[in-house]
Amino acid sequence: MDLEDDHFHDECGVFGVFGAAEAANLTYLGLHSLQHRGQESAGIVTSNGEQLFVHRGMGLVADVFTAPVIDRLHGDRAIGHVRYSTAGSSHIKNAQPLAVDCAHGSIAVAHNGNLTNAARLRDELEDAGSIFSSDSDTEVVVHLFARSRGRSTVDRVAEALDAVEGAYSLVFMTPSELIAVRDPHGFRPLCLGKLGEAYVVASEPPAFHLIGAEYVRDIEPGEMVVFDETGMRTLRPFTDRKAKKKFCIFEYVYFARPDADFGGISVYQARKRMGRVLAELEPVKADLVVPVPDSGVAAALGFAEASGIPFELGLIRSHYVGRTFIEPQQSIRHFGVRLKLHPVRELLEGKRVAVIDDSIVRGTTSRKIVKMIREAGAKEVHVRISSPPTRWPCFYGIDTPTRDELIANRYSKEEIARFITADSLGYLTIEGLHRAVGGSGYCDACFSGHYEVANTHHEQRRQLPLVGV
Amino acid sequence: MDLEDDHFHDECGVFGVFGAAEAANLTYLGLHSLQHRGQESAGIVTSNGEQLFVHRGMGLVADVFTAPVIDRLHGDRAIGHVRYSTAGSSHIKNAQPLAVDCAHGSIAVAHNGNLTNAARLRDELEDAGSIFSSDSDTEVVVHLFARSRGRSTVDRVAEALDAVEGAYSLVFMTPSELIAVRDPHGFRPLCLGKLGEAYVVASEPPAFHLIGAEYVRDIEPGEMVVFDETGMRTLRPFTDRKAKKKFCIFEYVYFARPDADFGGISVYQARKRMGRVLAELEPVKADLVVPVPDSGVAAALGFAEASGIPFELGLIRSHYVGRTFIEPQQSIRHFGVRLKLHPVRELLEGKRVAVIDDSIVRGTTSRKIVKMIREAGAKEVHVRISSPPTRWPCFYGIDTPTRDELIANRYSKEEIARFITADSLGYLTIEGLHRAVGGSGYCDACFSGHYEVANTHHEQRRQLPLVGV
Amino acid sequence: MDLEDDHFHDECGVFGVFGAAEAANLTYLGLHSLQHRGQESAGIVTSNGEQLFVHRGMGLVADVFTAPVIDRLHGDRAIGHVRYSTAGSSHIKNAQPLAVDCAHGSIAVAHNGNLTNAARLRDELEDAGSIFSSDSDTEVVVHLFARSRGRSTVDRVAEALDAVEGAYSLVFMTPSELIAVRDPHGFRPLCLGKLGEAYVVASEPPAFHLIGAEYVRDIEPGEMVVFDETGMRTLRPFTDRKAKKKFCIFEYVYFARPDADFGGISVYQARKRMGRVLAELEPVKADLVVPVPDSGVAAALGFAEASGIPFELGLIRSHYVGRTFIEPQQSIRHFGVRLKLHPVRELLEGKRVAVIDDSIVRGTTSRKIVKMIREAGAKEVHVRISSPPTRWPCFYGIDTPTRDELIANRYSKEEIARFITADSLGYLTIEGLHRAVGGSGYCDACFSGHYEVANTHHEQRRQLPLVGV
Amino acid sequence: MDLEDDHFHDECGVFGVFGAAEAANLTYLGLHSLQHRGQESAGIVTSNGEQLFVHRGMGLVADVFTAPVIDRLHGDRAIGHVRYSTAGSSHIKNAQPLAVDCAHGSIAVAHNGNLTNAARLRDELEDAGSIFSSDSDTEVVVHLFARSRGRSTVDRVAEALDAVEGAYSLVFMTPSELIAVRDPHGFRPLCLGKLGEAYVVASEPPAFHLIGAEYVRDIEPGEMVVFDETGMRTLRPFTDRKAKKKFCIFEYVYFARPDADFGGISVYQARKRMGRVLAELEPVKADLVVPVPDSGVAAALGFAEASGIPFELGLIRSHYVGRTFIEPQQSIRHFGVRLKLHPVRELLEGKRVAVIDDSIVRGTTSRKIVKMIREAGAKEVHVRISSPPTRWPCFYGIDTPTRDELIANRYSKEEIARFITADSLGYLTIEGLHRAVGGSGYCDACFSGHYEVANTHHEQRRQLPLVGV
Fold this sequence. Notes:
Number of domains of chain A: 2
CATH class of the largest domain in chain A: Alpha Beta
Number of helices of chain A: 17
Strand order of the largest sheet of chain A: 4-3-5-2-11-10-12
Oligomer: homotetramer
Distance between the termini of chain A: 30 Å
């Protein structure tokens, strides 16, 4: 259930196109397709081969860009970015793509991920005289690029990335080149497409489908793809060639769109299989299988198929929930959840209900949902979660609560069931999740605590940064 | 498929509350629950027992009302309205509730429905010296009220309504009274609820659930319910006591929320039964049953259950489609549909797909959907519609195209199948629809052409009305 | 000094054009020229000969109208309106032109003035079945028109106006005709102009100058000018042919633009003469004559010339004062005045200053100005007012405080001088004002209490009207 | 005449306050007082002693700042900035104060002026690895600060400023210190004030008056004033101690508010003396002296006094001209000027008019004004300019057209008179201007071409910078 206040949040989506008329407009549409990866700010940088043109703003893609703005974003190549962020750093200064002038000319970059050694690098760069205008990791990469003595853009990007650790799917653009690169572990997705003669890159394949482009393949962990006037070429610039692939398994659980696929594995089908395995590991006696929409639907279909219990859309999702809503002064029970989900009483009344959700973060939303279903007449409410307990924070680009706030970090399954007032609670196991998704080379640190790259994210910066209001 | 440009549109939702603190805020929430019935304008009128307070605006409920506006809407009683309208009369002057001063004091009214003799009454009223500030039928009712010599508000409302014909679920408010009334045929819904000591009325029961109120019953065709300081009383003011109940069956097919029920019949369950009957009447050899979300989901579940063909969410609906969208200059195939629906290729590829939708209006959207599914790899696309062919316009409060634009009015089933490029097409029969819904006393004029009340809607007004721009 | 919170306010400006391409745009410019007469709402109604097109909104002309709106206001004839209003009735429902459909077709009207028998007429009309959507007097006129049995538009307008009393300069428009009419006393201005073959009417001649039109003459008290396809004709429809001309003398004192003239008398020159007469009647020993800008400038020039005391712009007016301003929590002395006026210390320091303003309403603003000048170093501050004490409210279209709030109604000149902390205070006499303006036939009721038309404005309406929020 | 499209533009105003409750609000008011120095963007940075809080936006001060924003700008010290800019670089990225994090912590800076060696320094900094996010000179200063090895904030600011050349009045703020500094020539103004125990700095003294602060003195050329917890101290950090004072004489001619004074010389009085000297050097036979408001008023008063010709406000300035205005398709003569200035026909008709303006840039506006006055009936129009011909561009913080666009650079006085269709034209001489202002140490390069600091402004940057759209 993606209630804004109680879920993991992806930090962004990136897009790039090289060699297409209407590059700005295609990027606008591509970002629209990636809107679920970030609703806080959006930005596009285009190039006409000589100069970069930039527009960024707070809000949804459709609000940030108007037709006159798109018209002023000249050129046949573009990169774009959508961003989610926690309240503290929600500010225009952190909107991307970041674009600056430096000794090597203008450069722009859009970033999905999180650098684990950004704080240390930032301190070092500041000591060397750099100034920082944002809170974002990405500015570190740009500074490293600017200071690089590499002889080509490619050399300079490679040199900059050799210094950083952590997760990144990056799209760079100079007036003449577009470069897409994925960290050696491939934590975050990045895909390659083709639109006629033009090349396209995006966080997820559905961005290609909207604009009529064709999905070619995932960009590989540690791969750098360079587009320029001579065409496309692919490089392996990283010195650490032994890095293991560690693709974020939570993309399959929740982040990615169900119509996406990565590495030949369909997100929708993976979710269905999670439901099937869940039904096998945590069977339930119930009259109905009801998903928490929209993220729980595919898993619930799998659960229903495997268990033979009928699937029903017993919770309806509202289409009209905006950002701000006037709350009544008198308390309405479960108000926030009620605005977003509506129980179908006629289905639930007197029934034993198996509710399928993708994850439990703090537990407060699950508790409201269970209570709402029970008030709608359900006799029993059994919660089944299509992923393992989330016990650990993510340092690779996902916005998670602190460990203390993660209910599964502090309480047993039975205690959580009591807290959310469920008659029973079942999770998928880590092994079950891997089995459901299939393939290999996944990061499951949020479930297992096995971090591939040391986390230095919590290191305190030596000073309080400036605050945009 | 509720693409804005190719579907029937309901013309409104109404709400009222009497005797509750925060009446304005409850109405705001109630209107939010009814937002699917009208997204063009919204309005609330409150009363503190002495005076009416009015606010109306163009747009969604959450945009029209801000906290300071809600604060200025004083009193413990309120009525509200959401409205859809075609482009021509989309203007603030037609936003409701309508509120005026007249000899009997201030009165406000919110209307769902359409009067079939409004043009004639308007001409008569103008001849008697009345002026009209809007295009809406509702202003006719207010003039009749103002001119009534009835001795009480109830008498005046009854006298006014005796003169009008057609469909109306109306909520009136004077400083001291709130009156809810439904036309003798009960074309449009209107329900009664209770919130502690306060009374609530609304077009659909889910509006009660959001605010924690209890659904009591439907207000009956021809019933007038009066709320004032002495409590609630119910009247049967209409002289024509032989009117047959004619509740709009399309509320079950499409308009109402799936979590609503009317007369003890659940909308969700009725839709599932439509799918079941459809599977029986128009069987198909297919690998998957795929609904056009969101309106086709329940019918598709019924179809899948009855046919034994697996149900899959093969089309994903976007949550981020706003009102305006910048279209690319170069044509992207099926652009409008692509923005709103995304095919899950991994499900559809190589499959025989049974697509379930609730209705076909002009056929152009269905055609785009079929083509999009086929481009996503489907081997066969079979379209099944959970209602009969819509061949006739509605004169009772639904915004429909002209007869000529209704594809089912001009073409056979086979011709329509060819137009939408489907391998086969099947509709529910009228009899099958009635069987699926159950009960009796429905208006099915849009399918059958059997109009209970003569249509004078097409009568040309004798002059061109003024135009808001 | 036209501080918004402490001055008389004119209630509107009207404009009309007949027979010109770009009628909407010309009206937009004309209203811009009349913006000083009303900053609260603006509206334009156009006609293409068959139908009326309407747009109204709250705010300044340049905010209410955008290029796309102007483009949708079709036709070669138009009327427009700008409006000021007190807080209570500041609402879109009162924005003008008022436009309705009635038995005689569509009609729109823009009104400057105030009807003294509107409350009674409204009660009578309501008793006859009329409904009222606004608080404005103008709606009464439209109802009378709609109910008229007159055979032509002219007859109906004449019949309607025969029933009303008070002040009105009105511009009516039907699809085919435009009618400008001034009440028999001619309280409020209305002028006739010519733009090539097209006719123009406006509250003040500068509206003609902006659009390149030529000022022809004032429309006379009791005159009705009709424009239609056959050209222009002028009528004298009123039965009361003995009405005395009573043009508002305060238009010369303050309301009208200095570059306007009425009846051959230049507003600028009249103000200069007020200053001259004032210097003669209330001489002062001073080193400087300083106007309160902008309204006091011309009078101050006249005062300086007549007295031989040097004129200096010792108070500078800010160009950047918007509607809303964040006030500091800690009190800044004379904050409101400081935002709008800035003393030139170098001029004022150690000087005896004669400050010239056009009027004193409540005295609070004058007090702040005097104190501010003294704090800037002035040794003496002598206030001279270029009009007589304003002791009486206006019932003819000016928004004035109640009698109790008018300082000159309750206190002597000496007491007022003490209140505003001036070393001396001098007013023009009523006789002096008439002498300065020249000509005859003026209403000076706000100074003299001699009301030509009985005031029934204070009559309580029998009920509380509805309130827009 | 300050028509936006045809005048010199000042590039900014700066403000700072240290040690006052409501620092953000006082800065907001101070910026309002300086609004005439820049209407394009506004910004405030505050400090609570530990952290900086930043808000910037495009537009007027009153639009950029709302009460909730002011509330989030915590602390008892603040700096602020208003900015004008030419179209090309009109973008949020150039809004000030600039605020960054660097090795020395957070620092913010607000700048009025222009650095003549910025392009070279920027290239050098980029070569050393710096990245630039804006076009502004100011970012160069911040980079120099960040790279300084100085041991204190003061040392680092001094080191940074030793490298730059040109014009600057700067206000820096770190969490704990506020520093105001003026370049050794003192091209641009900067003043010191006191508000109770708090210190205030501002571009012009009227900013002090609005907030109730006291003007203490001008900060001297080459002076650095430091405010911290220990109070205020003043330093002379520059190594070039022989710099000559070169205060911009155009501040007296046009930029500064008439109620400002610098170095004991009142702007208003200086303008009056310009008028007096002009009357002596370029006498005219005329019936009226008419200023082009508002900037020409004081000079016109001086001209009238010296010449004995009556002063009249023959041109009225509109208060309601916003940024955007819908132009009519059919040409209205002198449209732009007509919107802003209105001739008083009754004054001008048949008269010989001496029109006083402060300067002529391209000549196009003057031409429109002369024609408009003549069309209003003037017999002769004699133009007198209260400054010498502007023949040279400014490199010290004023936005001027290129030399080729300056009419006085290419044409003789007689040719200009013909172009603007004046019967005669007279300018002040350079000597006359100096005499009128009095004192010494002025930069008059825009008149004389005597540049004190070499201009490298025209140096082409080696690459096209990125463009915000």
